[in-house]
Amino acid sequence: xxxxxxxxxxxxxxxxxxxxxxxxxxxxxxxxxxxxxxxxxxxxxxxxxxxxxxxxxxxxxxxxxxxxxxxxxxxxxxxxxxxxxxxxxxxxxxxxxxxxxxxxxxxxxxxxxxxxxxxxxxxxxxxxxxxxxxxxxxxxxxxxxxxxxxxxxxxxxxxxxxxxxxxxxxxxxxxxxxxxxxxxxxxxxxxxxxxxxxxxxxxxxxxxxxxxxxxxxxxxxxxxxxxxxxxxxxxxxxxxxxxxxxxxxxxxxxxxxxxxxxxxxxxxxxxxxxxxxxxxxxxxxxxxxxxxxxxxxxxxxxxxxxxxxxxxxxxxxxxxxxxxxxxxxxxxxxxxxxxxxxxxxxxxxxxxxxxxxxxxxxxxxxxxxxxxxxxxxxxxxxxxxxxxxxxxxxxxxxxxxxxxxxxxxxxxxxxxxxxxxxxxxxxxxxxxxxxxxxxxxxxxxxxxxxxxxxxxxxxxxxxxxxxxxxxxxxxxxxxxxxxxxxxxxxxxxxxxxxxxxxxxxxxxxxxxxxxxxxxxxxxxxxxxxxxxxxxxxxxxxxxxxxxxxxxxxxxxxxxxxxxxxxxxxxxxxxxxxxxxxxxxxxxxxxxxxxxxxxxxxxxxxxxxxxxxxxxxxxxxxxxxxxxxxxxxxxxxxxxxxxxxxxxxxxxxxxxxxxxxxxxxxxxxxxxxxxxxxxxxxxxxxxxxxxxxxxxxxxxxxxxxxxxxxxxxxxxxxxxxxxxxxxxxxxxxxxxxx
Length: 737
Known about the structure:
mainly alpha; about 725 residues; ATP binding; Serine Threonine Protein Phosphatase 5, Tetratricopeptide repeat; TPR-like_helical_dom_sf; two-stranded parallel sheet; nucleotide-binding
């Protein structure tokens, strides 16, 4: 391995050593990167290894059984498939038919469906296994009939016949129909193991308990046999074709020919012996390789769980979850925290168990926020259970992120009054305990909720207070605990607030700075949040070119990371942009698809404005009646949920639609509503938009003086943002008046 890593940079060497859980003994300096960036750099290092090998000679690269692939390995495989057209590499990927391959259709990808063997091919495979010997034709025909053209079954049943010595007896034990062939294979494998003798069978059992692949060193530590006997048993297994060997003992590793062979050996172990073996494996790993105790913890967790040593299993599953979350492998982290909880449920219900359960549920909630969405039922359940435990244990300060998570869940579902109560709870407790980290989260949460409720000035105060308290050193753990960077996200929300309050230059500057900082963090949830929050001001001012760039980046991040909530919102905004650029049919299709996906996440917040975008698209398409119906739904949704931050815009759009239907009096009512709402919320930019619409209506009605007075007063308030489209439009209308 040292020779392989020699040509690499120090950083790549450190990353690959960490990936392989290899001690570096000071050879490489630790890499200080964010979890997501570390994963990206590790992928880059692996791809560089592939490129270096391909420069030396053509490379055959195998990915087998991809139907069992984990999410992070899947990401790497996607990158490899993207890279291989430029390299002398033949990539072979195998998977079962039920796996949906996303790569089919790419120019450099060819799919080969491996069907069952026909009789001629089956006979050829039998002969290949037999070698220089021979089997009667009726026996060959019977093997083919029994195995239904499955190559592995053909091989194993043929070997069973050869080793059994009496073809009639062996085949008589086989199942009568092809549907039962798997049972036949199991019996065949069992018989072959038995014929190798007890020593080889016991060694196979130990290896099977370790896993599909096992090392000689670990096997020797667990099997507790003398070297000669162990080597002889392994030679028998290799000679029988049940196990493959790579390398020379004691550095050799072994691989069962197929998972079914491992299963057959493992199934012969009695429960007590299984537990004993798994305990020995875990203890041997710790005793013989101390450096592994801090690397893949899921291996230890699995063996301790199978050994019935629940406390140790809980400890390692939790460590695995935190490790996965730290490197942004969120799907794996969610599964590992759930396994920790499953194991924890086997322990007596006491304070210690409840405290651990609180830790795991709060961590699970943060992870599910990214993989399922902040408003997903699974996320809500995790935080609700965490809150129940938190209250029962006296609301310990180190878990103040629990009410933060609850507020986020309810806010994103559009349950803003309930979210506000959690915000007040969090801020009260944080103040009572003089907890700066809790206050940072509390001010962010309150600022977000108040924004959506249309209380812009109060929102601004909270967001600025949270930013003033944030300490990047003292609060560095919040990014993992809350699944976002509180300072960057606070700045993103503040940008939107300032923009609506009539400070568009400051608002856009805040939004842009937040996006830049989020890119530097390489924390996808924070980047996605900053991109969508920064898109709203661009949409309001009508800067479609800048909006497209931001949404394209958002959709790429959401698709790569599997963020359903942000992908749905991005699709909605992309649909609106497409409509504005003239492709109304495609844009409306995207809007509807995005809305369907958004509803599926359980989200409610943003829904009124998303519906308003569809209504405006209907107006552009000339579908005025449908647009009016959709906008009525948006207004009712906003009133029902108290999501009033864009209530002025909804009323203005309603007036616009009524005007298209030649209902000028009714349109004026809604324009006035929009103006009054914006004045009450002190949202000067939205007030100006309403004033422009109302002034234009009055101008067309011959009320030029009233229009000029209204618009002049509103426009005169502004001290910045004169290059934004709405201020340019207002100035042009004033000149016209």
